[in-house]
């Protein structure tokens, strides 16, 4: 289908580059544009997106573009909310930003049933939750009871989402929530491991022990049901198996590491035998019942099971065998030859195993052996050693060419080549420009392998590796301008070839191409070599070019829209009006505070990072924060900080602005005071950390040094205690 609709690719790219350009442009915080102009531009993008969506909805051929523009409008609204936060110096990446953004996106998802809205809703929901728990710029330390409550709530919440999404037929989204559920469970249980609970037994140990028991019991029950009913999706099995493996490995190794120290090898070896035995038992049983189950279910279950157990087995094997090597040789010279011997033995033993039910053993031994050869080569510290094992990997790839294991040696071959070239350049003091040229050559060779073997697993792997090489070359910041341009062009042209002329129907192939493009755009956002403003202009030009390509060529090479879900414009129009009203009212409210609020100077100490959507900002720590830590009396929740006018002042534009000092911290139930002598500032205390809401000051990019010596913040305070940060000054 994508082949028949390849004419749509320029339009997708046009939208992607347009949105990226808008984000880059606003994040650059270009000082030439006034606040009203920026708000006007952001509102214009939302309005244009909705109008385009309405126009395309009337089209018979391009009706699907209506959904694309509606999604663009939803993203543009989020960018506008982030812009307000930037202009008025609200918290960077605040949970409130993502929560406000989430509401209309979720409503659009429910109204249109358009799948990308559900994915965006889940992303914004997760950002809201995690930013609420771990806010940017604030260091929160939770007690054991608090952490228990938070993570148990997260587990219950995500399990509920999992069952709801699964029931409504959105399995992929459900699997994401299941992964997050398992992450929360394993993170909590491994942080409070069995060893820690027994060694430091206290009042919280019993609930955590109960959770350990419930988790193990749940996994056992799930596995028994999975084997018996064979109805659960293979991905569910894979997620549970992977995270439970991490749980077992961490807890078992942690306990025995402290109990037996260097003798960790023995328990690791026993754990490895148990893992191998379990895999053999399951695969033998699986083979007997394969004829009675769905072929697709059986195939994916087999692949996931083998892949995950081989991965876990490799971790255990590496840890236990490395422990054995250090136990035998310590740091003596023979250790490198022990790695060589074990590497050869593991690879040889793995290749000798032929039984299908022993596939996990076969793969684990080979991967472990491959990895062990690298420490040998690096410990020898001679270029011939790394070249020797690299050549051996090339030979093994050729010998096993018709088998799936060839992919293991092909990856090792590429890693070996990069390591060998790097070591050769370092040893013989060659120019480091030759490394980038070598990586370019490796990328081209992998691309050639893909075009030759594109229908095979090895061909797909070579494509992924070629993307990695070409993408990495665009990350280098020590290249000449000419080479940087060449490498960027190579990556972009290579990417566009695969976007416009798909060479494979594999989903991995298609998605890896888009992931590479996304990674490129994200990296360029955080890269400081080129200004965000200039990047945004380049992206706008690219966007215009691809829209032009679509209207000239793409329209003739696409199919008529089909299977487009119908939705009503009336509720969408209500959302549109509410979005415009929210942005306009919030901007007006902030402007009123800037114009009419009491001007106050506060002492501070700054830092300097970059926000996800809002650009560079200075993280501020006020004198108020320090005094709060010294004077607080277990205050929690909303509080009032009473500021008192001091004898000091800061001169700004010929005017003396008084410096206010924190006097007392009281409950928010006390009425706010704002006059010439005293000012009440609103704050929020969460787990002993004070949040004023004015800790972030957004600055134009590459101007960090200009603000480094600023030691006072000018803020405007409203009659109710709300504050807005105006600027930073030096006394």
Can you give a write-up of this model?
- It is a single chain.
- The chain has 731 residues and is α+β, with helices and mostly antiparallel strands.
- It has a domain at 597-729.
- The chain has helices spanning 9-27, 35-57, 64-87, 95-112, 115-133, 144-167, 171-191, 194-199, 205-229, 234-260, 264-289, 295-329, 335-352, 359-380, 383-399, 406-427, 433-452, 457-473, 481-500, 507-526, 532-552, 569-596, 623-631, 704-707; strands spanning 598-606, 610-611, 615-622, 637-652, 655-667, 678-686, 689-691, 696-698, 712-717, 723-729.
- Strands 1, 2, 3, 8, 9 and 10 form a six-stranded antiparallel β-sheet that branches.
- Strand 4 and strand 5 form a beta hairpin.
- The protein is globular and about 85 Å long.
- The chain starts with 8 loop residues before the first helix and ends with a strand.
- The relative contact order is 0.10.
- The model has no long low-confidence stretch (mean pLDDT 89).
Low-confidence stretches are none
Principal-axes geometry comes out as: globular
Please identify the structural class as seen in this structure: alpha+beta
Count of DSSP helices? 24
**How many strand segments?**
10
Tell me the major beta sheet.
6 strands, antiparallel
- Oligomer designation: single chain
Provide the β-strand percentage band. 5-15%
Helix percent reads: 55-70%
Cα-atom Rg, whole angstroms?
A: 30 Å
End-to-end distance = 65 Å
Could you tell me the mean pLDDT? Answer: 89
